[in-house]
Amino acid sequence: MSIVEDAKQAVKGAAQAAMQTAVQMAPDSWMPGGRPDPLIRQQHGFVGKPISRIDGAIKVRGIAPYAAEFPLDRMAYAALVFSTVAKGRIATLDTAAAEASPGVALVMTYRNAPRMAPMPLFMTSEKACGGNDLPIMQDDRVYWNGEPVALVLAETQDQADHAASLIHVDYVAEASVTALDEAKANGTEPGQFMGQPLRYESGDADAALAAAPHSVDATYTTPRHSHNAIELHAVTVVWEGETLRVHDASQMVAHMAWSLGHVFGLDEDQVHVTSPFVGGGFGGKGLWQHQVLAAAAAKLSGRPVRLMLSREGVYRIVGGRTITEQRVAIGAQADGGFDALLHTGTVAMSHHNVLPEPFILPTRSAYASKTMKLDVEVAYLDMVANTFMRAPGEAVGTFALESAIDELAVAMDIDPIELRMRNEPEKDPTTGAPFSSREVEKAYRDGAARFGWAQRGKPGARREGEWLVGMGVATATYPYYRMPGGAARITLTRHGHATVDIAAHDMGMGTSTAQTQVAADRLGLEMEQVTFRYGDSSLPGVVMAGGSQQTAAIGASVIAAHRALVGELLKLAGNDSPLAGLDADEVGGIDGGLAKLDEPTRHESYVSILARAQRDTVVVEATPPMPLETMHWSMHSHGAMFCEARVNTVTGEVRVSRFLGSFDCGRILNPKTAASQFRGGIIMGLGLALMEETQYDERNGRIMNPSLAEYHVPVHMDVPEIEVMWTDIPDPHTPMGARGVGEIGITGVGAAVANAVFNATGKRIRDLPITLDKLL
Prior knowledge:
Helix content: 25-40%
Strand order of the largest sheet: 3-5-1-15-12-13-14
Number of strands: 32
Shape: globular
Radius of gyration: 27 Å
Structural class: alpha+beta
Distance between the termini: 45 Å
Largest sheet: 7 strands, mixed
């Protein structure tokens, strides 16, 4: 980084720090969430009930339309050819055999592809969501091993796949950096995440560590991970004149529309993106080269195009979680109080993206320490771009942090839970902000009682036949986010039916169900009287399903729209209504209409208000305030993860036999869908702990296990019965009192498993995944 860039970053950081200080000093009442959401008070509505997913029936019947299932006339099917060098130029490109192959309609390469701008790189502007900012099939250059170099369109998928196999490419390889040690030797740069530096220091942590009477200092490593959603990345596109219509598997439809417009020189409203159903996202269902290439091929051929990546194709062009090397050092006094907490290390990243793995994030707020030193350094490789993957930073950062705390607890002969409780912070350790709500101790105490933590013995003490049995625990944590750009529209009809429109997403987590519950309670309607529409870029709002923040973003947007609706209805009600003279703060949605909150007999139904006003509908749209609450309070979900693991003394095999997650995530909107999210995150965490690893050949930058036969994820036999529980204590400063549940389930799992393995065997594994060769 240049001196000028350093200076710019310093100025930006100082400005952000000044703003945060000002926001923290402001009165609570000035903040969004300064007054608790009225829905927190409502205890007997739909919120909090375990209601089955309203879209479940069409999914099990197989009639829910996914991105690769939209039928269009004259559809052409696409297949891609991927580069086999990490960096260089295309020397020869022989497409003759492919062009002559049966059914082929088009072969597109850099020679004939339309002129296109690079994708706007994610986080470089409000609506940018490109996975990288490289030219897409615009010249003969190759930037990573796996980059698409040719696309074939044919009448059937089999014909396209066969023709793609006939294309012959030779390359002139150039010097590339594909090994982490070489990248580190070339120099590292300070990491940034979401515009914030990944570096923090308070006091002299190195000196405090050296002086502490008790300490641990260890290095932990995690490998690359690849996305493996059940639904392969797919897109169906068609040009209608100068309008581009895109059916995508996306967790950011509004961002997609804007970004694709930038690529093709279109206005945002000339691109219409729909994504009604997504079979898993986890951070990987953004804008990658396949959507751009499909749209380019459709433009060139004049036909609708369907492009579904093969499983190998996902590994080649869709980023994942990058490798990390983490040092955690803790110095403590005899009572266990932390004098020093250091969490530093290195991650790998490509030159063409901005997403290092921010593994220090959980350490920023998890524990009190007299001194602290946090730092993420970035080494650059010629590789596929990184991207978000469930709980970026926290998933692997908690492995290192929570393993080190367990090591310190063992060294000091203190119960691991008790050591954590002794270092609970009274306020945010790095910002000084008060916590909006923090019930970590209750989560631990309740979880320990349910799990039987008191029966845990010394390492290696419990044996059942060939199996050594141990227990481990770790803290789970994930921030509350609410990203700006949300907006919602409510349409209320004279029949008392409401439609809520927002460009949000449902990736299988039950968004439409939970939000219908919330909207019904807020409006005082039955769920059957509410329609929640989403997954369409033509709807209001710029909402991303990521960062466990979509529920808050939707909630805040609907609060704003509901307030506007109430104001409009009070105007329509007029002086002849029981509501006359009231303002929006005094009334709420009750029993199919509006009523005074502290005098519910002053009530009038929506049907009555609209009938007297002679209106068929009332339509309102509103945008919530900026998410300043995240700067005023320290806002996080937490959990206590309990694992029982068995290790075979003959084979070294690890089996997780019991797992319990005890969560503090504010109010749980739907226990049924939330439990599914918690369990899904835990299962993904078991994969992170025991088997997931992208095998990357450091000689040439190629991913060597691009299939589910070679890249292992947990299957039913790997997963025990998983018990989940929660405090259900509302956060007074969030919409509905809820915080996100989608990502916290994976955090802490890796450490809980590793700590259980240590308790079973006495052997500490600091390098994920925990495979049997490391235990023999």
